[in-house]
């Protein structure tokens, strides 16, 4: 029992730590896809978020002091939202194939990020930031027996912000008129249009929310895990988030659950060798576990998922 | 006046021009001379027989990954998994190339077949899941990419070597490399794979356009329900399409394993051949001939860009931005069509 508890105690904080960026980004994906715009570009949005978060942090660490990481992630959100406009223009106004324009976003973000890094820092990667997020013990709560060490000891506050955001997203999407409009645009754009909802404007807003959250996810990843920006900072976390969106059945809390699960799976591959039960399992099985499980989940072993009906289709006024 | 066929040529050409123009503007903004930049790019691709050989070497796998993705597109599927299929194909080719001894006439085809087979298996999984369970192939192929990357690294470290970072070199009898081609191109790494790539392009064109099976594959991609009604086996055709697409991408891996490198290193990140193949397929209008031209263009851009930092001090990543913008413009072809028609009208 004690060994099991020790194992949990080494896994849970790391799982939460790896999950946070995925939760933010997956929530972004939920907003975009709920409005009917497929967003394969989440990976690129994370890249831009990581890049702008790191650059801002490095540039302003002396002037802003201890609030630097917080301002950095806010800046990354703004930059992410602006960058996602490119996807919105292509997918909504130019009626581009949304998967293809998402692919273009991924290429563009990485090209731009590395180009500007070389331009401004003269090398392929930035310096390490001096002001990242640090893990903290949460006062009072960390003194609770059993739960305290598990959830509140050496934890990144960003993990809790991520979970709070998931509930906020659920509230916005399911309890507000705005959320209802956004979802209706993704299910039946023509009916929404007939009811006086501006379909294209709604989709622009949804894509920009996904840009802000994707940027946030990327910046949180960069400032809690990577500490710098290079070509190899964001490698697949955006795609994992996209999987979390689908795994979580396009529901904010489902996406959060899936992201937590992926974080858990990733933490197993990080700490697995130290856990008695897992130490003999070859590392590669733990590494590929999240991907294999995603496939199994999608293949229906965890229940069928129903995508928003109009997902991926440009809306052309007057067409049926 | 402007038929669909004309648009299919005009849109990619306009997209490339817009992409290059945007690249020039970026160079201007950052204080570089775009003319010098593009001259450096041109010289980096064509400046000597060595550069030209390297360009062809890069074009070779691009043709194959582009074909793979174009083939899937034509049958209504989006194969983002070419990347993983390249990796398993590379591994299979190198494994057969290094582990066996046989005369070249048997060994080389065997290694190529192994690569195609490995890629085909990697395409079969998303194919059967799509056909039988209706799971979207995009997300499955993305997951299969990561599985391929991690498994092949583990195979190289644990099975093929004793925790080494790359496999044994392949035997001479499985190699696509040729001294003749290398000498002719100033000792570039150009190899006979280009012939394999061109044959594959012919195969894809012939299969899709000239055979009943190809007609069925396209028909299923165009309208599943109508095809079903017409008595076609929709599921079977989806699986076959993914298997062929995967097999062709697997061959692209063989080009790297048997031609360019002659071994396989462990990869810390993706090769990007599969992802670049998406760009090639889109720009090539998803047809075999277009793919060859698009692969050539991207090969020129990629290899040429390597000369840009030394000759014009422009970071080579500029070309990545140009390629991204070209995809963006191709994807947004609706607006290009609209603009051309508008210009046409005002001209009258």
UniProtKB/TrEMBL annotation, chain A:
Q: Write out the GO MF terms.
A: transmembrane transporter activity
Annotated membrane-spanning segments are 12-31, 38-58, 70-92, 99-121, 150-173, 204-223, 229-247, 259-278, 284-303
Q: Which GO terms describe its cellular component?
A: plasma membrane
Would the keyword Cell membrane be found if you checked this record's keyword annotation? yes
In what way does this protein cross or attach to the membrane?
Answer: Multi-pass membrane protein
Presence of the UniProt keyword Ligase in the record: no
**Primary location recorded for the protein, binned into one broad class:** membrane
Q: Which Pfam families match?
A: BPD_transp_2 (PF02653)
Q: CDD domains per the record?
A: TM_PBP1_transp_TpRbsC_like
Provide the alphabetized UniProt keywords: Cell membrane, Membrane, Transmembrane, Transmembrane helix
Q: Name its cellular compartments.
A: Cell membrane
Protein name according to UniProt:
ABC transporter permease
Source organism of the structure: Radiobacillus deserti
Q: What is the lineage of its organism?
A: Bacteria, Bacillati, Bacillota, Bacilli, Bacillales
UniProtKB/TrEMBL annotation, chain B:
Q: Which InterPro entries match?
A: ABC_transp_permease
Q: How does it sit in the membrane?
A: Multi-pass membrane protein
Q: What parts of the sequence cross the membrane?
A: 7-29, 35-52, 86-103, 110-129, 135-156, 190-208, 238-261, 273-301, 321-340
Where does the UniProt annotation locate this protein?
Cell membrane
Molecular-function annotations in GO = transmembrane transporter activity
Q: Name one GO cellular component term.
A: plasma membrane
Q: Which Pfam family, an example, fits this chain?
A: BPD_transp_2
Could you list this entry's UniProt keywords, alphabetically sorted.
Cell membrane, Membrane, Transmembrane, Transmembrane helix
Its recorded name reads: ABC transporter permease
The species is Radiobacillus deserti
